[in-house]
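Same chain as my last thread, 318 residues:
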Amino acid sequence: MFLLKKSILLSFLLPLVSAGPSGFGHAFSSGPTADGNWIRTANSTLVVPSPPLPQKGLLSLWVGMGTSNGDLIQALVESYNDAIDAGCGVLDGDWCAWTSALVSTGQQGGKEVLANVGDEVKMSYMYNDATGNYDQYVLINGIVVSTFSTSSGKALGWGTAEECNQAAPAYPCGLTPAHSWINTILVLDQPQPDYSNTFGTFGASGTLTSSDGGKTWTADKLTIDAWNYTPTCPDDDGYKLTTLDNSVFNTTCNSDFVGGELKNSTMGSIQDCVTACDETENCFFAVWDGKNCGLKSSVAEKVVREGMIAGSLVSKGC
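reply #2:
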């Protein structure tokens, strides 16, 4: 097993369709399978964690399978803030669970159902030889709550994901708590003893093992580390932050604005800082030093300052 960059880790899971801008956190992956081999069934159960902090975006936790047709089979457990309509009718602090697949025409799926912190949400994918479809089932604490079926070809890779939808009207998802996938079972069409050579991790622990020559692979627990979607420097230089009112700020690392002082206060993140700017009359710039937030008017001038991160208003929302 080896460490992977996120782009490589997800390359075989993500279908060749447009899914909109998203940010991906920690993950465990397996695949692609050897030529001529594929995944017949995949089962894994999420122990639902606390919602992200701050609750400002659409966060999806899932296990998915990338297929030969370019589809992504992915049942979802999703957390919404109270500015986004949840398909299962919940607001801030709860989760929705549902079967789904990302196909060439977009996201499709079954019924969305409320899931609570501590629930065990099982995601089950089974290839149906009679129909050529993958049949999906989502169970909450042992009860089937959502079903779906797609003609998606053959599954070539499997992995976990933390996905933050960063397209407006969604927002950076804050801190996602560590969580676990338990009782994972993958069954390949043919034994592949060296399948473990395809495993990759990014902020995850635990692994799959086989006791039958490589046809069935199991893990009692895969643990996914906490992930913070708040932009950090220098990796996220140029990252665009969207506030709950749909205003957009462009962030730049090692930058400050001098003059035009409006207000200074303690803030926990650059996201909170630009949100405060958005709510302050005549504020065009927000600067954050890791603890303190300064709000500036249009007369402020940009300067280089090591360790600071600045947000500049690009477009004003409602």
